[in-house]
Amino acid sequence: MRGAAAGLSMLALAACSMPPPRAEAPTRAVAAPASLPPVKVFTARKPSPPQRSNADIARDFLDLHFALEGGSTLPQFTRFEEPITLRVTGDPAPNFTRDLNGLLARLQGEAGIDIRQVSGGAANITIESVSRAEIRRALPKAACFVVPNVSSLAEFRRNRRAPRTNWSLLRNRQQLAVFIPNDVSPQEVRDCLHEELAQAIGPLNDLYRLPDSIFNDDNIHAVLTGFDMLILRAGYAPELRTGMSRSEVAARLPAILARLNPAGERIPAQWLAETPRAWVTALEQALGPQSSLKERLRAANRAAEIARDLGWQDHRRALSHYTLGRMLHVREPELAQKHFRTAENYLAGLPATSMHMAKLAVQLSAYDIAHGRGAAALARLLPAAQSAAAHENAALLSTLLMLQAEALELEHRNAEARRVRLDSLGWARYGFGPDWIVEARLEEIAALRPSAP
Question: pTM for the complete prediction?
Fold first, then answer.
């Protein structure tokens, strides 16, 4: 289930620690085109293969397939045992069909899954496109979700507390429903589609220890990665079948992964420590809207302390500091920057963390721009934008490009700045949706730039 706060969820950039106050707000942001350019979309997808040991991936596969997000274990492996049919109902968003076709092509080509869309009648998977409000009425904290053994939102409501919709009681996969909003940005629709359809046909768990996967509640990745496609392909290997126990699957995985991912045989295992429930609880409380800011800050500090006490040196410790930085940027901007730099230090040199670095680049480069350091900002923004494009995150890409335009103007490269800013708008329309949100983002980023002396 994708959380309601999923997606980019940027902080208010203009508050990223202000330089000395100025007399008036900038007005250049109103120079955005009267008619925004067409929506941009990603085309050729070239996912990077996982850069991790097959021994680590086998452990990840087992933990993804034999547990649920809440921590309960599953007694047996499940998957679809016949070719999968899929139908779409409701009122899909404008870009939905294109993104669905692209995802189905990837599942067929990269994961080797026999899945096809049907135009009518019964299907194994029903994707129902409904309003965000309808989804919230069904599950208040969800942006989108998937449920077993139903084919509509109305059927789910009638059977919400019935055993048939309980994932922990699922013993085979025959019928599932995915509920996707149709009145949010194109990117949020697509992100929901990737995550929920992947869980409908694949693993049900999420793991914070995975740096390179959509099966992670940190929402770093927007679309299925090379690692995710390997997990799905392994899940539909002929050596496996529904009903197998964890030990039976574990016995077959080494040969399966050696065949599907031979490069992983030559990479040493890292064996990241398990993520304790106390850290997950603290992080989720820090990010959740239900608590006061004081309580959320206390929870964020608790998550950072747990990560420190456990001696973590990976992306999870970086996430602890990133979360603190985002919460402190208004009240204590200098302290927030220290947390962002600490997160950057933990990520430096780690494989599969380019998207983590790209999101950090937003915070760090915004601070540089606010203090007139255009060259320093550009040094972060150029590689970050490449990562955002490679991972098909249009909202992040557009924000990075808007920041890049500001940094270019600080360096008196005005023609380049105009070109980059215009390029950002098409991506912003896909990533953020309505034009007024795009224009508001432009104004927010323009407000970072210090006034001329």
Answer: 0.92
